[in-house]
User: Fold this.
Amino acid sequence: MTDISLEDRGFTLGHGLFETVLWADDALYYWDAHLERLDRGCQVLGLPSPQPEAMHRAALVALEAAGRPERAAVRLNWSAGPGARGLDPPTDPHPVLTATAAAVATPKGGATLVIARGVRRNDRSPAARLKSLSYLDNVLARAEARETGADEALMLNTGGEIACAAAANVFWVEGDRLCTPALDCGVLDGIMRAKVLESASRGGLEAREIRADSAKIHAAEAIFLTNSLIGLRPVGRLDGKTFAPGAAISRLSDMLAAFV
Amino acid sequence: MTDISLEDRGFTLGHGLFETVLWADDALYYWDAHLERLDRGCQVLGLPSPQPEAMHRAALVALEAAGRPERAAVRLNWSAGPGARGLDPPTDPHPVLTATAAAVATPKGGATLVIARGVRRNDRSPAARLKSLSYLDNVLARAEARETGADEALMLNTGGEIACAAAANVFWVEGDRLCTPALDCGVLDGIMRAKVLESASRGGLEAREIRADSAKIHAAEAIFLTNSLIGLRPVGRLDGKTFAPGAAISRLSDMLAAFV
Assistant:
């Protein structure tokens, strides 16, 4: 585990990307999807893409260093690398690949969510879709949720539409339909989000990417969060309203598990 | 110059702050104002404030390491320090102070500006006012400006109002009045911005903090940028329109120089 130079733009400016990959059953889950997302991010950020082999090697080294846990989060950082003072990148950027790994448990029970009031997602920035090293808005949203005793914050975009949670995507059930905010609402382009949409479509379940305000999600039958580490986690409370998602979510979960 | 740990939240999440202080005439300009802004930022970010003495020492060590240039930018980083995986900070945060310094020249001539189209400032985040380690939106705006051959990007907020440049605040002259966007337009709380407003008021010049769209600034008599390093720099072009700010800006510049 190397350190990061004080002149790395990943540190000084948050100019870089990361991926969080689930290690379980001796495998790196959805590895190709993570690499593809990182590639798309590199295009937005003006960075060359990392070598897939180097990424894989870094992931395995980090897992070994962490004692090769049975179930782990592997975090791969692709920071923009050293640069001179100021915002302009060097003409020939040399991004830096680093990786860490840590054991993770599957969270138990339903998540408690609140809608963040003090910070919104910037749907007018391409960075909103990316797992970037500039994650301060997410940190602030999560802190706000924790202050109220909640597990996680649901973030609105600057227009007041639902976007995603601070560290997860959000889905809800309306009748027989699965809904999730469209990517251009300022939504993180989640790997598990895409897998759920794909699985729903293969399973013959109607799933829609929509624009919705908070009234819409408050009225939902059931809500769940997704990300690469938790997979699919039901929401038990949102803004003080209780959801008893048991039946709906476990039906969905079973259905999706067959495909995801 | 130490390195940054891979587990520092300043690196992993952009959770931290920085200050860029001008060193010239053997002095650190507006030192107290920089410390006060950092303090305000710490409150927003849930971090303890650094010790002023430690900050000062770090600045001087960085200047020595850089060969004690006559005119330099001293960058002080106050990153949130090590944390476990995920967004939640440790209950007892230990921020990390680091500093670098580099010689800087005063830019010559008028700046060429374009309004960034691909990214806007998040006026719905308290981070917009801060010099934070999550500066990716600014990096993207600047890159867009450079692609068109401009020096700097003028950023709008998500409502389409003028906010500030990627690395400077913006002022313009309307008749005998100085205007600048109000802080709640998503504006960086610039040290030099505050000094100019204060100086104008002491000099008996009307200066207003307003909300304005781009038509307003296109119609200005003169435009200038401010930050701690450049002081006050006239804008020669904005979106292809030429400004010949000579008289207006040098009058202002002289007037403000007496106070700033």
